[in-house]
Design a protein that fits this description.
109 residues; mainly beta; five-stranded mixed beta barrel; 1 helix; 42% strand
Length: 109
């Protein structure tokens, strides 16, 4: 199980940036991927980074949740700094900007 594991995230959409294909989607959190882990969509595994209030290039932290997209092929991981936690409601609040377009279920530790 990935929850509880430490991962290194390359940030390709830092906090304050906009989606490259959908310029109306603003990123209020850092968003990136884990190099070398391929998700079901054929791309590297996507990760939301919560608990950091500044734009990042890289982040090493702990996976605290998995967002299962019930109407899409891939899941999204949620990482935070060590000893930082969020409830399911707090996670959904922070990722709503993108997850509002999908039917989701959050698995938390």
């Amino acid at each position: 199980m990935i929850i509880g594991q430490t991962v290194k995230v390359k940030i390709d959409r830092p906090l304050g940036s906009f989606h490259p294909k959908h310029p109306d989607i603003y990123y209020p959190v850092n968003y990136g991927y884990v190099e070398g882990i391929i998700a079901p969509d054929g791309e590297e595994q996507d990760v939301y980074v919560l608990g950091v209030d500044e734009p990042l290039k890289e982040f090493t932290g702990r996976i605290i949740a998995v967002i299962h997209r019930l109407d899409d092929i891939e899941d999204k991981w949620v990482a935070t700094p060590e000893n930082v936690t969020f409830t399911k409601e707090e996670i959904m609040e922070r990722v709503h900007f993108q997850e509002q377009f999908f039917k989701t279920e959050i698995e938390i530790e």
